[in-house]
Amino acid sequence: METPAHAALRADAVRFLFEIGCAAAATEIPCPISRFRVDAAGYLDPLPRGVAGVAQGSWRGATARTVIIECKQARADFLRDSRQTPALLARRRELEAARACLEERIIRVAEPELRIGGSALFPELERWDYDRSRLASYRRIVAELRRTDLALHGQTKFWVLRQYKLSDFLFIAAPRGVLQADEVPPGWGLLEPMADEATDLPPFRIRVAAPDLNAREVRRLRMLRNIAAAASRRVFAASANESDPAGAGSLEAQLEKVDPGGLRS
């Protein structure tokens, strides 16, 4: 049973999706090709600026994008979808520090061809394609990091959504203190509330940026379809309950006919 705190977090997630420019968003959405449902998801449509009802200064670009947000109100809620252990986390911190050291001190000097020219306005902000590094020690660290991440998150909800790139951006929304930045699963970002009380501020700040997974177009279209279906189910349920408050049981049977088992094809 959902708690009021989790429901409020999920409502803020939908508000965040609209504020970053999503043209469509909903809650409790079946994932494409997966048995999982996600708390909230939005569709960033590459519409021209100035279209009524769409936020300005948003994340929208030349192509469509999808965003998934998982809401974790308590640490126990997060741990159910992960396999966090102190020893694995400690080893992962060591490996991340070693990787960062090699990237900064060795690879940038020994393999300058890995710099992606023109990827940023200023040269010091340009991205590097470290995946192509031939440095043996670096490749060993990356391989051990992958094994550690698999031990921490393998076959969990976080792992599946990232492994199969079911969305362009993946975020966990959680109150401050529920999880630390170095506990965020690979491929995910972390959203934290801007304030404890209702204000005019945006609902979340991005504490950990989510990488762009560049989901396949078919995944985006299926997510858009599932967002539309989830939103339509809510409207249908609300309308049916208003017209026939005593018919809740028959309503569930009707909904199952409309969407048997959820949209996961």
Secondary structure topology:
Layout lengths: L3 H16 L4 E7 L6 E8 L20 E7 L3 H6 L5 H25 L25 H18 L3 H7 L5 E5 L15 E5 L10 E5 L8 H27 L4 H11 L7
Parallel strand pairs: 3-4, 4-5
Antiparallel strand pairs: 1-2, 2-3, 5-6
Helix pairs in contact: 3-4
Helical content band: 40-55%
* Number of contiguous helices: 7
- The figure for the number of domains is 2
From the spread of the alpha carbons, the general shape counts as globular
**Order of strands, widest sheet:** 1-2-3-4-5-6
Low-confidence stretches: 48-57, 248-265
What's the overall average pLDDT, rounded?
81
Sheet/helix structural class: alpha/beta
Backbone CA Rg: 21 Å
Q: For this entry, what is the oligomeric state of its chains?
A: single chain
Order of helices and strands: HEEEHHHHEEEHH
Strand content is: 5-15%
In short:
The protein has 265 residues and is of the alpha/beta class. It is built from seven helices and six strands; from the N terminus they run H-E-E-E-H-H-H-H-E-E-E-H-H.
Description:
The protein is an alpha/beta fold and 265 residues long. The protein has two domains: 4-82 and 157-258, no CATH class; 86-153, no CATH class. The chain contains seven helices and six strands, in the order H-E-E-E-H-H-H-H-E-E-E-H-H. It has helices spanning 4-19, 75-80, 86-110, 136-153, 157-163, 217-243, 248-258, and strands at residues 24-30, 37-44, 65-71, 169-173, 189-193, 204-208. It has a six-stranded mixed β-sheet with strand order 1-2-3-4-5-6. A hairpin with a 6-residue loop joins strand 1 (24-30) and strand 2. It is globular, with a radius of gyration of 21 Å.
